[in-house]
Every structure is written in C-alpha cells, then in structure tokens.
Amino acid sequence: MTSPDNHGSPPTIVLVHGAWADASSWSRVGSTLQDEGYKVRAIANPLRSLSGDAASVRAFLDSLTGPIVLVGHSYGGAVITNAATGNPNIQALVYVDAFAPDAGENATALAGPDSALSVDPTTVFDLVPPTFPPTAASDLYLKESTVFTSFANGLSDDEKAVVFATQRSATVGALGEPSGTPAWRTIPSWYVLGTRDKIIPPSVQRSMAERAGSTIVEFDAGHVGLMADPKTVTQVIEQAVRATVG
Prior knowledge:
Blueprint: E1 12-16, H1 27-35, E2 39-43, H2 50-62, E3 68-73, H3 75-83, E4 90-96, H4 107-111, H5 121-124, E5 125-128, E6 139-142, H6 144-151, H7 157-166, E7 170-171, H8 172-176, E8 189-194, H9 202-212, E9 215-219, H10 225-228, H11 230-244
Parallel strand pairs: 1-2, 1-3, 3-4, 4-8, 8-9
Antiparallel strand pairs: 5-6, 6-7
C-alpha cells in the first residue's frame, strides 16, 4: 500500500507506548533500529482518553512527511488503531502484545476474564484519588505485586522495580472508552504475540490478530516483550518496513 509519492523514501518508525509505561519502554527497540539507520520517533501517549490520545498521536503523525510504520504496545495498540485511520502516509501497523480493537470495543473488555487484571481492581491497582468506586477520570497505577508477577514477567527483579517506580498512570476512562473505525481494515498489519503474556492473554491476542489479518509472529515473552526480547520485536518491525516500504 505504499503510495507513489512515498516510493523509495526512507520511512519514519513511530513507536507508541502503552499504559503504565512511557516512551523509554521502547529504548532497546529504538536504539537498535537507529543503529540500523532508521528514523525513529518514540512519542508520548497521554493515557487520558482513547479519543484524546489518538488525536494527540494523529497530530504528530500529520507533522511528518514520507512513509510511516506505526507501532503500538499494549493500550498503545488501541491508540494507533484509531490514530492511523485515514492517513495515507502510514504504510504498516505493528502490534506488540497489543490491543487491536474493532469499532465499539474497549481495552478493558477485550482483555477478557483470563487477564491478570480482570479481578477485584483493589487487588491489582492503586487508585488516585483513593476512592471507590472510581470515576472515568480516576488514575490507575499498578500495584508492585502486579508489576512483579504479571505485568513485567520476563524481566529481572531490578528491572521490574524500575518499571514499578517509573510507571505512568492511565485513567479508567481511557481503558474503557469504545474504539472508533479501525485502521487495520485498510492498512496491512503485523502482530508480535507474547506467549507468556498475563495481561492480554495469548488467545485474546491471536483472536484480534487473526481478525485484523495480521502477519503473526509468536515469541516466548510476557507483556513487556519489547523490553525482554527487543531483538524479535525489532525484526518484525523491519519485516513490516521491507514488505510495505522497501
């Protein structure tokens, strides 16, 4: 789907992080891509509302010229699904342990009953403000136990501690907001599926990836496979570049 105006132009690879993370979660993938000569931008995802987050990412994408390969991790997958719709410069989508919702779906429901987060929220989240029930504007932070046992499995204890300490909160509303028209209907996609993911179970990932018609690559990683196995993630991104941009 490379447009004539983009043919032969070097792509920009845009990396969008998920909830309870920031752009530094892409540092290992991004640095490898840069070493190989790619233009890389790992940008901020506000984590305030799905529509607002997608609008923020869309505005950044609109500032770029030339072909774009857009990559999303976790909730970032829902964001790129909405942000990419209608942008002719986006040649490929890459989902990494990510949500790929259809219209009307939301991340919380898609995670399904087998997700480690689909339990009493007071056992896995810290609420800010600490009042229950939460509102759409309530911030969710992962409890330390959730990071260590479910969210960052596959990392060392020292790395897990950093993930816990530096996490950015997501609002309840962002995770529960229905998605719009999905970009994967018109843009080719790749899906990096972590077989040890406890946040978005592998069966859920596969169902979304197959529905989107994605090229699926499995790897033996948990939810933060972009940090635990950046080599595989980088290889799939490069595969998407070669297939759509050249």
